[in-house]
Amino acid sequence: MKATLLAGSVVLAMGCGTVTPAGQAGPPSRGQAASPAPHIPVSVPAATTPPKGPQPVKPTGDAVNVRKVPWQTARAVNKSRTIRLVWSSGVEPCTVLDRVKVKETAKTVTVTLYEGASPKAKNVACIMIAIEKTTTVKLKAPLGKRKLVDGAKH
């Protein structure tokens, strides 16, 4: 589907217009005959392949306007001593991971993600697009049978 859409866009872009080369007259005015002008193809930027899987990020610790952000998935790895979190976020520097708070009890492990804007995001245009990000946190003890809780939702 993407290949068909991209191919159609290229064909459409190639047939949309011509460019008058420097030093030649522009389009004929009313009553003048049009002279044949060479067609100069319009270039289309190459399609970029989106990254496979979530983008790994580390907390910056210096974000401004920080808020809690819910994660979508959490999975125990490394013999249940590490939790890999995945969530939807915005693009950097407009949205960065500030910190991750982990609270462990005998029955639960509560993980809270905090995001904000980078101090470098002054006077930049921020596009509104969601991307998946991932980070890992280490636990003091293996997760075992404890329940994982999203601190942004409670």
Largest beta-sheet characterization:
4 strands, mixed
Sketch the topology as an H/E string, one letter per element: HEEEEEEEE
CA-atom Rg in angstroms: 26 Å
Structural class: mainly beta
Apparent shape: elongated
Biggest sheet strand line-up? 1-7-4-3
Identify low-pLDDT runs.
1-21
Q: Name the average pLDDT.
A: 81
Query: Span between N and C termini?
Result: 40 Å
User: Approximately what portion of the residues adopt beta-strand conformation?
Assistant: 25-35%
Oligomerization category of the chains in this entry: single chain
Helical stretch tally: 1
What descriptors fit this protein?
154 residues, mainly beta, four-stranded mixed β-sheet, 1 helix, 8 strands, 34% strand, disordered N terminus
What does this protein look like?
Residues 1-21 have low confidence and may be disordered. The chain is elongated. The longest helix is centred in the first third of the chain and has 13 residues, at 2-14. The strands form 2 sheets. The protein has a 4-stranded mixed beta sheet, with no helix packed on it. Strands 2, 5, 6 and 8 form a 4-stranded mixed beta sheet that branches. It is mostly beta strands and 154 residues long. The chain has one helix spanning 2-14; strands at residues 55-56, 64-69, 73-77, 82-89, 96-104, 108-117, 131-138, 147-150. It contains 1 helix and 8 strands; from the N terminus they run αββββββββ.
